[in-house]
Write a structure and sequence with these properties.
The chain is 23% helix and 26% strand. The protein has helices at residues 133-136, 189-204, 208-214, 243-255, 265-280, 373-385, 390-415, and strands at 4-14, 19-22, 39-48, 60-68, 73-78, 87-88, 94-103, 118-129, 288-294, 306-314, 331-336, 341-353, 363-370. The protein is globular, with a radius of gyration of 26 Å.
Length: 416
């Protein structure tokens, strides 16, 4: 029997009765209600571990479709600038089904603002793993210094070509392999915070209520511990119209994580979505850590994507790991004897950006976890599939040099 994994209620302003589903290969959609063009829609997104049965009788079926997810994270996007919250439906490079339903808005739909003109229900479920390294993990096209700088049109032989054969079998995972397709009862952030607070109070020999009062919370002994009662007055809910942003802000302010930061609604939405999805991509007790991602594409690594990363680590006595991370297909590539550091490579799964660490240039820090076996298998398959042939590379280098010599000769002739 299909199991509901997670649900998210949202509101989206729709323009010209057109919206898309970011993170998929689906075409644009529209509401079946033809007489309205600009409206607020209450949207309920649901992720299931298998094809669910029909929704209850209050919902009217509208359409069904199948698609391939890019990263496993989707979002409703309007024609101009409207965008809903990011929502995790499952693993990347899976084929999914989606059913769309329609009804008149009811209390509890969306953000319950009373402005919604109709309500949608989108139900997602995984069908099968469709990862293909040739389609989904192709490297950047052949790079020739000087040629790209002068914007020369590259010949077909200069582009990366699919290999003649696969070096390793393409891994095919099952739904049950993925953390994002398993219900995890440990995702309640308030409960996790409360458990930590109880341990802290016990260690100091005080009650939780006494510890909260010492932190500036006006709470009496015996009062139920809830998100509202545990928060200082200035951080309690009600600051933002969007309840997901409001709840995130209250939780972070209670922890002191937002001190000294002046974050707008858009940035808070990004942070709230990122941290929620990061938790959903992990199993209970998963070790997370931060790594720098450098080079092309570093700015836009999506949550749920697995890839190889490199970083310098302190060369610790006895070969101990710096933060107990970067253990999957771990390779020591170089040693700096002077600084006592090693350059290490390993395979990780990206969870979210690390907002506490700023990169420089094309370096971005991400919070990651070690890749699980089925995730690492995809990366290893892509690396073996696209391993560069050195003879072909030398031939392409010669083509690039010839084109660059011709280009410089052309420029010199124009200067005379």
């Amino acid at each position: 029997m299909a199991q509901l994994l997670r649900r998210l209620d949202d509101e989206v302003y729709v323009e010209y009765n057109t919206f898309g589903l970011d993170g998929t290969d689906l075409p644009q959609w529209g509401s079946p209600t033809d007489e309205i063009y600009h409206f607020v829609a209450a949207v309920r997104l649901e992720s299931w571990d298998a094809e669910p049965g029909a929704a209850d009788a209050s919902w009217t079926p509208v359409s069904s479709a199948t698609f391939v997810a890019e990263s496993g994270v989707v979002a409703i996007v309007a024609m101009l600038d409207g965008r809903g919250h990011d929502f995790l439906i499952g693993p990347p490079r899976f084929e999914y089904g989606v059913d769309m339903y329609l009804r008149e808005p009811e209390p509890g739909d969306g953000h319950a603002t009373g402005e919604c003109e109709e309500a949608w229900l989108l139900r997602f479920w995984p069908i099968r793993d469709v990862f293909d390294p040739i389609t989904h993990a192709a490297p950047f096209s052949y790079i020739a210094r000087g040629v790209l700088y002068y914007s020369i049109d590259l010949e077909p032989e200069q582009l990366v070509q699919p290999p003649a054969r696969r070096e390793v079998p393409v891994p095919v995972s099952a739904v049950a392999d993925w953390a994002s397709l398993r219900a995890d009862p440990d995702l309640d952030t308030f409960d996790g915070w409360l458990r930590m607070l109880r341990r802290k109070a016990e260690g100091r020999g005080v009650t939780v209520h006494e510890l909260l009062r010492a932190a500036g919370v006006d709470i009496e002994d015996g009062v139920d511990l809830t998100p509202a009662s545990c928060a200082p007055p200035q951080t309690r809910a009600g600051r933002f119209k969007d309840p997901l942003i409001d709840r995130y802000y209250a939780e972070q302010a209670r922890r002191g994580s937002l001190s000294g930061r002046d974050l707008g609604v858009d940035r808070l939405r990004e942070y709230a979505d990122g941290e929620r999805i990061a938790k959903e991509l992990c199993r209970g007790g998963t070790q997370t850590f931060s790594v720098p991602v450098e080079g092309r594409g570093a700015l836009y690594v999506a949550a749920g994507v697995s890839r190889r990363v490199w970083r310098w680590e302190d060369d610790m006595l006895g070969g101990e790991l710096m933060d107990e991370g970067l253990t999957v297909d771990r390779q020591i590539l170089a040693r700096n004897v002077w600084t006592r550091q090693i350059l290490v490579s390993g395979i990780v799964t990206v969870l979210r950006r690390d907002h506490d660490r700023r990169g420089c240039g094309d370096t971005v820090w991400y919070v990651v976890r070690d890749a699980e076996p089925h995730e690492a298998a995809r990366v290893l398959c892509a690396e073996a599939t696209w391993e560069e042939d050195q003879d072909q590379r030398r031939a392409l280098d010669e083509v690039a040099r010839e084109k660059l010599i011709d280009l410089r000769a052309t420029y010199r002739s124009r200067e005379r």
